[in-house]
Automatic annotation (TrEMBL):
This is AAA family ATPase. Residues 61-70 have a biased composition (Polar residues). It comes from Dyella lutea. Residues 61-87 are annotated as: Disordered. SUPFAM superfamilies: P-loop containing nucleoside triphosphate hydrolases (SSF52540). The lineage of its organism: Bacteria, Pseudomonadati, Pseudomonadota, Gammaproteobacteria, Lysobacterales. Residues 71-87 have a biased composition (Basic and acidic residues). Gene3D superfamilies: P-loop containing nucleotide triphosphate hydrolases. Residues 81-244 form the ATPase AAA-type core domain.
Length: 492
């Protein structure tokens, strides 16, 4: 992201956005003052060197002609501005239709004035604008009739009145019209601000994602000299919308907090993209009530996935991948910042490798952090529960391991295996990653090691006949972590 595409924007009073990029997402809990903040920034329209369009959060009305609205807008330049300065704009969609009609007139003037455009028959208003709106709709399309009026046509060819549109369809048509009108009217010598307050209202998560892609496409198509001075600002609670917008390389995210009038925009990091699948999947949080679980390594992601499926719904976590300790730290901070800005009761979990140490880790905000009480997840293969999943006991395994050693005297892992079966702790604090497939082979398990461990964790509440407590999964992972993910009941 080039430095010249970042700037600070001040409302002229107390409100300030710092490090603004081409696409800016502002998050924050209800009551944090996001709408008030955006309305204050929108007052920059009163300055000669700014062109501002503010789209209010509650967009009422229908996408149809209204003579009274058109009359008021024509005779009072501040009529629509004052209407949209309220949280609930009663004339919003009527004005959106007016703006789409103005856009059609603007296109007509361009065709008259630009010879290249006039001679290019492949470029029409329908293809340049209406086609983009229609790609957002599933069950109908928007057309221009012989009189130049807009009309909605169903898949079966029937004309329907704008009042019959679903709330989502009506919202999408109005928003798309406003966005395209704004970008068409951008001034090259001015700073252009498109401010959208909760554009996700009434939109299904799939439509939210579609709108995000529509918006970034419109930004990408801007004339480069306008784009340098054009900034889109979006306040939202929608995790699907945030995650799709974050795919744009010029996107930044800032948090509005109740006690502060300053919002600092930060570029989207790789850490955010790692936890984005959880936030971008609304069913995970809002219906399934899953909790993000940050783990070290792709193997651990697969293990916890199998544990969730085996548990029959008792374990409800959404595994998020960290590939290193440093990325684990970044993910924990990112997850804490984002969840506290969105949820009233934020909670996340991280489980780190033990790496041969038994330690307690303090929380990172709302992220409860645990360290394995063994070296890493591979060590769980030698717990009593995992051995039982493979239909073995520790004594059985030792006998089978000794036979394997006799048959494979030159195997590179022979010495490590001998050390493990002779140890008093089953190699609990040793790195045995290179032994994991050997153990599966000795046990003749016929399943991947991650499946064995995941199934054992998922079945913990069942009647495992565990021998010595010190060789149980409860000891190797830790009761606190297992209780946090729902694998075992909280002890009284």
């Amino acid at each position: 992201m080039s430095e010249k595409k970042q700037k600070d924007i001040s409302s002229g009073t107390d409100e300030m956005m710092k490090n603004v990029t081409e696409l800016n997402v502002i998050i924050g809990r209800n009551g944090s003052g996001k709408s008030k903040f955006l309305r204050s920034i929108s007052k920059l329209r009163n300055k000669d060197d700014y062109y501002v369009s503010y789209l209010s959060p509650e967009r009422s009305g229908t996408f149809s002609d209204n003579p009274n609205t058109e009359h008021n807008a024509r005779h009072d330049p501040n009529f629509l501005i004052n209407d949209r300065d309220k949280n609930q704009s009663s004339n919003f969609k009527t004005a959106s239709r007016m703006h789409l009609k103005k856009l059609a007139l603007h296109w007509g003037r361009r065709v008259d004035c630009e010879q290249d455009l006039r001679l290019d028959t492949t470029r029409t208003f329908e293809k340049e604008y209406l086609a983009h709106i229609n790609r957002l709709l599933s069950n109908l399309k928007l057309e221009v009739d012989a009189q130049g009026e807009f009309q909605f046509i169903t898949q079966s060819g029937h004309k329907i009145d704008p009042s019959e549109l679903s709330s989502g369809e009506s919202e999408m048509v109005a928003l798309a019209s406003e966005v395209m009108y704004f970008f068409a009217m951008c001034g090259g010598s001015k700073t252009n601000l498109l401010i959208l307050d909760e554009p996700d209202v009434h939109l299904h998560p799939d439509l939210q994602a579609k709108f995000a892609r529509f918006l970034t496409y419109q930004i990408d198509q801007l004339n480069p000299k306008f784009r340098e001075r054009t900034f889109t600002i979006i306040a939202t609670h929608s995790t699907p919308l945030i995650c799709d917008l974050a795919l744009a390389k010029y996107c930044s995210i800032g948090t509005k907090r109740h006690e502060s009038e300053e919002v600092l925009q930060r570029p989207v990091t790789e850490a955010f993209k790692s936890v984005a699948p959880f936030f971008g999947h609304p069913l995970s949080r809002f219906i399934g009530d899953d909790i993000p679980l940050i783990v070290e390594g792709a193997d651990d992601v697969r293990i916890w996935g199998h544990a969730c499926r085996t548990s029959g719904g008792r374990i409800r976590v959404f595994p998020c991948l960290a590939t290193s300790k440093s990325q684990m730290n970044a993910l924990e901070k990112t997850c804490d910042n984002l969840m506290r800005a969105i949820y009233d009761e934020p909670k996340a979990i991280s489980i780190r490798d033990g790496d041969g140490e038994r330690k307690h880790i303090h929380p990172e905000g709302c992220v409860i952090r645990y360290s394995l009480q063994c070296y890493e997840m591979e060590n769980l293969l030698l717990t009593d529960e995992c051995l039982q999943v493979m239909h073995l006991t520790w004594v059985n395994f030792i006998e089978m391991a000794k036979k394997w050693i006799l048959k494979n005297p030159h195997h590179p892992q022979k010495n490590l295996l001998e050390d493990i079966i002779q140890s008093t702790d089953r190699g609990r604090d040793r790195k045995i990653k290179d032994l994991r497939n050997v153990i599966i082979g000795i046990a003749d398990a016929h399943k991947d090691w991650e499946i064995v461990v995941g199934q054992a964790i998922g079945r913990l509440e069942k009647d495992f006949s565990v021998g010595a407590k010190s060789f149980s999964i409860r000891e190797f992972i830790g009761s606190g972590a297992l209780q946090a993910v729902g694998a075992i009941e909280t002890e009284a």
